[in-house]
Write a structure and sequence with these properties.
About 25% of the residues lie in helices and about 25% in strands. By secondary structure, the chain is of the alpha/beta class. Strands 3, 4, 5, 8, 9, 16 and 17 form a seven-stranded mixed β-sheet that branches.
């Protein structure tokens, strides 16, 4: 087994450094030195649900970039010193209809998650990117374009691909009127990507506080959802709405903003929702969702971002401040994504 330092939760308060065992390389594995790892709301939720169970360790982190340090004997597409990125899926059956369609994120056998999952071969739990090394099957590693800043690119592997999939599936481009609900980790990337695709883009926010940011990111307008007159005036205005709000909320007001045959894609909140069928019936509107992305779309996203200079707006912190980042994320004190610099783990582990 390989050993690497990691930020680990074992049921005690906060994350602490501890040695972590990674598997020895299989023929199709690569070892990645993790340089930068984004901090996602999913990490926060996982830690909260883990707190009552200290039997097994938890290492979060599922959007990271780094450099390959070792390769298995059958690896064909990567070499030592290649700059790469890894997202929130690290394996799938690659044989079901979803995998064959390039949607490994919908694998019928359920994809293997970067952490909190189960290895498909040895049955061991998976541990995430809040560590200095990750061992992963080469099929789920992505070449990182040279022009992308590796720290600011890390959130593309979760937040970015989560909004990229519906934008592409809904054929967003020139002459598409897009609205993005919420300007957080997902929302700010949805704005950047929609603008880069050529769409007329609006941000929908509960307050006008982020108006300057929204326009700096490329949005043409900001619609304040607590302004009843503005919402009424916006009825039928948008072809596509990307809803990134991470808590339960009423979808009715947003469905009312859709034009004929418009689509609301909900990607922030993954729990049960209630919808009045009349809100869909009037205007033949559609409600859909998306989660993560397949290998082809993820590679496509990275190339698109390199071509259009799209990366996340980040606050870069040394990994020793991981607990601070989680506390601030919980109260919404970030614009728009924390990224951890994992280099200090080398010294912390000594």
């Amino acid at each position: 087994m390989r050993r690497t330092p990691a930020w680990t939760a074992t049921g005690s308060a906060g994350l602490r450094t501890a040695p972590l065992e990674r598997r020895d390389l299989r023929p199709d594995d690569v070892a990645v030195r993790v340089d930068y790892c984004g901090v996602c709301h999913t990490d926060l939720h996982a830690l909260r649900s883990h707190a009552s169970d200290s039997a097994d360790p938890l290492v979060p982190g599922h959007e990271f970039t780094g450099v390959i340090t070792d390769v298995g004997s059958a690896v064909r597409h990567f070499a030592v010193d290649d700059a790469v990125a890894v997202g929130n899926i690290v394996d799938a059956c690659l044989a079901c209809d979803m995998c064959e369609a390039g949607q490994e994120n919908f694998c019928r056998e359920f994809p293997t998650l970067t952490y909190g999952g189960t290895d498909r071969q040895d049955g061991r739990p998976t541990f995430g990117g809040f560590s200095r090394e990750y061992v992963v099957r080469e099929e789920f590693v992505y070449a990182l374009p040279d022009s992308l800043d590796p720290a600011a690119a890390a959130p593309l592997l979760c937040a970015g691909i989560t909004v990229w999939e519906p934008l592409r599936a809904l054929d967003v481009g020139h002459n598409t009127r897009v609205a993005v609900v919420g300007l957080g980790g997902l929302g700010h990337l949805a704005v950047k990507l929609a603008v880069a695709l050529g769409a007329e883009t609006t941000v929908i926010s509960r307050s006008p506080d982020k108006t300057d940011d929204a326009r700096r990111l490329g949005a043409r307008d900001v619609l304040v959802s607590t302004d009843a007159d503005a919402m009424s005036a916006g009825r039928g205005r948008f072809d596509v709405i990307i809803d990134t709000v991470a808590v339960a909320h009423d979808l009715g007001p947003y469905l009312a903003l859709l034009a004929l045959d418009g689509t609301l894609s909900q990607v922030g909140f993954l729990g049960p929702v209630s919808v009045d069928s009349l809100d869909l019936l009037i205007g033949r509107k559609k409600l859909t969702s998306a989660g993560s992305g397949g290998r082809a779309h993820t590679a496509e996203l990275l190339e698109f971002c390199a071509e259009h200079d799209v990366v996340a707006e980040i606050e870069l912190l040394p990994s020793a401040r991981v607990n601070e980042s989680l506390e601030r994320l919980a109260r919404g004190d970030v614009r728009y994504r924390f990224v951890l610099d994992m280099a200090d783990l080398d010294a912390l582990a000594d």
